[in-house]
TrEMBL record:
Belongs to the aconitase/IPM isomerase family. It comes from the Eukaryota. It is found in: Mitochondrion. This is Aconitate hydratase, mitochondrial. Pathway: Carbohydrate metabolism; tricarboxylic acid cycle; isocitrate from oxaloacetate: step 2/2. GO terms for cellular component: cytosol; mitochondrion. GO terms for molecular function: 4 iron, 4 sulfur cluster binding; aconitate hydratase activity; metal ion binding. Binds 1 [4Fe-4S] cluster per subunit. Pfam families: Aconitase (PF00330), Aconitase_C (PF00694). Signal peptide: none annotated. One of its GO terms (biological process) is tricarboxylic acid cycle. The lineage of its organism: Eukaryota, Fungi, Dikarya, Basidiomycota, Agaricomycotina. The keyword Membrane does not apply.
Length: 773
């Protein structure tokens, strides 16, 4: 019996469960633990069901399934119900998310959630003064966010703390986690091996309320990296190259998974840069496998326990050998040269060696007016130290910048560290202006004075997005995107045709010189300096907190439920606008000065589709009222229809709603009486946002049928009485000349989403169910 007893004891201790070790998810949430055990248990079920090798993204996504035993799993087809580990919101989108959460009748968030103040700080004269000005101007919004987060148990990062994605990387991202964030560049956390997806506020509310998050089972695009990065080539050039390959819609419905031996030459923050800008190709998210560079970063940010725990779980933080990808891309980093993308779209990729010729051929303005580095995409210590090395070399030759030059630190920790280590002094000594730790010009929060609106000019940024008018509201600004290295070097030339890898500048001694290859530190040798403490944890006594919303406010407004579907077939609906060409969420719900109304649906709805081009006349914000025959702005015309009790539709082009995750682009048409948005194709997040608000998000079964629609048509939508998944609807377009076209409309609604439509919105359905419990 004794040998059997020893064997039994050995079996009992041979394989401890990963979940037996409790590791907090962050240094701020000691009672919320990383749940690797769920991934382990789920994958045991999934492997038995699928019986094939899994990609890394599949391991993490399927590892967070709500019901792994019964979940239908087919890439690009199934709708997965997932349990994210956490939620993150930036201040512009958090206002509406929290207003919706308050309407849902919950008293605390079901998962760890944070709110970050980064979007409402306008770049004007410099960091300190701009921050104080923003605090004064936005006081009621910040008070609302501070009290609402305190009331419902959320973490609050105050103005000046930094950009949401940098704060997440420094404090909350962890390998193998699943996070959703109310900002399209949430995938930044993929640099730490996390599946992080940008969503609308309604999705965030679902997860905060304990409801599974629904995601169409993503396809997987594999990017195999070989060789080694070096010289003037940076991680930013990887995603600039990929954007050129896949275009702004090539990643739609897919996770982009990077792998291969070349990954080892990328820093953790460099991998985050690549994942961040993956939003510009429409990807669900982007992801890197766990490696020692992530361990180094976790240790540098005082998360040693997480680093050790992830190393124990490393077998599930890599893709399986032989895993199948829906598309494969090969990039040799040793051969990759710097790229510059733009203007007007982030996927127009040009290698640096060909860029000067392209500038001249396309007659883009050669003079470089402004060079801007930083943002959530490129403001790591590595980025800043490399740019500072370029600036210092120019200073050694007596040069000042010829273009305006701005620097945006991504977080208070980065700002404080580069101030301590001297990089800020280097930038300021050559004429640079350090902005607040915030989004700033990247999202249009820029009080630009050096050019008039409509004046053609060129700027170059290390940001991620460069749609028309995005940075400065000037549609004639040619915005180009590159690495911080290229941007910094060009600031000293003041000319778009300058190639720092081969061209020379002239020092004050009259001698020409060529920049050396940039150099910098992956991580600060003396460690990070945290700077000022800008975090507000939830109080112990939340019951006594009162949420601050002034009924007279023009910036905050409590929400009223949308009307449910009346069960009738929609007939004779006017077309509010037939949109021609690119229509991003910036076109649908403009940013910049409108950001201050993000918490007031009635007021912000006055910007509905003001940037969209009307196919009838080629003009923005000028549409014909189908009842009066007069031309007016889009929101005024929509409001007129609403006042008459008339529903309306929008007709759109390809990839409608690309860009930012802002759900106001879905809330506004719903608020002003819209019933359906009918397009050639949708961007993923916007399509989901429309469904959440009770809108019909429909596509032409044959995209060419877009051309059959005339702006003055009246339309019927047939088939809603038997609305069902996979069953097409019919659009009857009745033309002014008495003829008509019957057009097939497709949709991606599942049963649950059809219930949202019938109830009037997902929030209506949630509130109804909460009352029934």
């Amino acid at each position: 019996m004794r040998p059997l007893q020893r064997l039994a004891a050995g079996l009992a201790t041979a394989a401890p469960r990963i979940g037996d070790t409790k590791v907090p998810m962050s240094l701020f949430e000691k009672d919320a633990y990383i749940n690797y055990q769920r991934i382990e248990d789920n994958l045991a079920v999934i492997r038995e069901r699928l019986r094939r090798p899994l990609t890394l993204s599949e391991k993490i996504v399927y590892g967070h399934l709500d019901d792994p035993h019964n979940q239908d799993i087919e890439r690009g087809v199934s709708y997965l119900k997932l349990r994210p580990d956490r939620v993150a919101c930036q201040d512009a989108t958090a206002q509406m998310a929290l207003l919706q959460f308050m309407s849902a009748g919950m008293d605390t968030a079901a998962v760890p959630t944070t709110v970050h103040c980064d979007h409402l700080i306008e770049a004007q004269i410099g960091g300190v003064k701009d921050l104080q000005r923003a605090i004064d101007i936005n006081k009621e919004v910040y008070d609302f966010l501070a009290t609402a987060t305190a009331k419902y148990g959320l973490g609050f990062w105050k103005p000046g703390s930094g950009i949401i994605h940098q704060i997440i990387l420094e404090n909350y991202a962890f390998p193998g986690g699943l996070m959703i964030g109310t900002d399209s560049h949430t995938p930044n956390a993929g640099g730490l091996g996390m599946v992080a997806c940008g969503v609308g506020g309604a999705d965030a509310v679902d997860v905060m309320a304990g409801i599974p998050w629904e995601l169409k089972c993503p396809k997987v695009i594999g990017v195999n990296l070989t060789g080694k990065i070096g010289g003037w080539t940076t991680p930013k050039d990887v995603i600039l190259k990929v954007a050129g390959i896949l275009t702004v819609k090539g990643g739609t419905g897919a996770i982009v998974e990077y792998r291969g031996p070349g990954v080892e030459s990328l820093s953790c923050t460099g991998m985050a840069t690549i994942c961040n800008m993956g939003a510009e190709i429409g990807a669900t998210t982007s992801l890197f496998p766990f490696n020692h560079r992530m361990v180094d970063y976790l240790n540098a940010t005082k998360r040693h326990e997480i680093a050790q725990y992830a190393q124990r779980f490393a077998h599930n933080l890599q893709g399986d050998e032989g895993a199948d990808y829906d598309q494969n891309i090969e990039i040799n980093l040793s051969e990759l040269e710097p790229h510059i993308n733009g203007p007007f779209t982030p996927d127009l990729a040009t290698p640096l060696s060909k860029f000067a010729a392209e500038v001249k051929k396309s007659k883009w303005p050669e003079e470089l007016k402004v060079a801007l580095i930083g943002s959530c995409t490129n403001s790591s210590y590595e980025d800043m130290s490399r740019s500072a090395s370029i600036a210092q070399e120019a200073a050694d030759h007596g040069l000042q910048v010829k273009s305006q030059f701005t620097i945006t630190p991504g977080s208070e920790q980065i700002r404080s560290t580069i101030e301590r280590d001297g990089q800020i002094s280097v930038f300021e000594n050559v004429g640079g202006l350090v902005l607040a730790n915030a989004c700033g010009p990247c999202i249009g929060q820029w009080d630009r004075k050096d050019v008039k609106k409509g004046e053609p000019n060129s700027i170059i940024t290390s940001y991620n997005r460069n749609f028309t008018g995005r940075n400065d509201a000037n549609p004639a600004t040619h915005a180009f995107v590159a690495s911080p290295d290229i941007v910094t070097a060009m600031a000293f030339a003041g000319d778009l045709t300058f190639n720092p890898t081969q061209d020379t500048l002239t020092g004050t001694d009259g001698k020409p010189f060529k920049f050396s290859d940039p150099s910098g530190f992956e991580l600060p040798p003396r460690g990070y300096d945290p700077g000022q403490d800008t975090f507000q944890p939830p109080p112990a006594d939340r019951a006594s907190v009162n949420v601050a919303v002034d009924p007279k406010s023009d910036r905050l407004q409590l929400l009223q439920p949308f009307e449910p579907w009346d069960g009738k077939t929609p007939v004779d609906l006017p077309i509010l606008i037939k949109v021609k060409g690119k229509c991003t969420t910036d076109h649908i719900s403009a940013g910049g000065p409108w950001l201050k109304y993000r918490g007031h649906l009635q007021n912000i709805s006055q910007n509905l589709l003001i940037g969209a081009i009307n196919s009838e006349n080629g003009e923005p914000n000028n549409v014909k009222n189908q009842f009066t025959g007069e031309y007016d702005s889009v929101p005024q015309t929509a409001a007129y229809y609403k006042s008459k009790g008339v529903k309306w539709v929008v007709i759109g082009d390809h990839n409608y709603g690309e860009g930012s995750s802002r759900e106001h682009a879905a809330l506004e048409p719903r608020y002003l009486g819209g019933l359906a948005i009918i397009v050639r194709s949708f961007a993923r997040i916007h399509e989901t946002n429309l469904k959440k608000q009770g809108m019909l998000a429909l596509t032409f079964t044959n995209p060419e049928d877009y051309d059959k629609i005339r702006p003055d048509d009246k339309v019927d939508i047939l088939g809603l009485e038997s609305f069902a998944p996979g069953k097409n609807l019919t659009l009857v377009a009745k033309h002014a000349d008495g003829t008509k076209d019957e057009i097939s409309l497709s949709h991606s609604f599942n049963e649950g989403q059809i219930e949202w439509f019938k109830a009037g919105s997902a929030l209506n359905l949630m509130a109804t169910k909460a009352k029934q419990q």
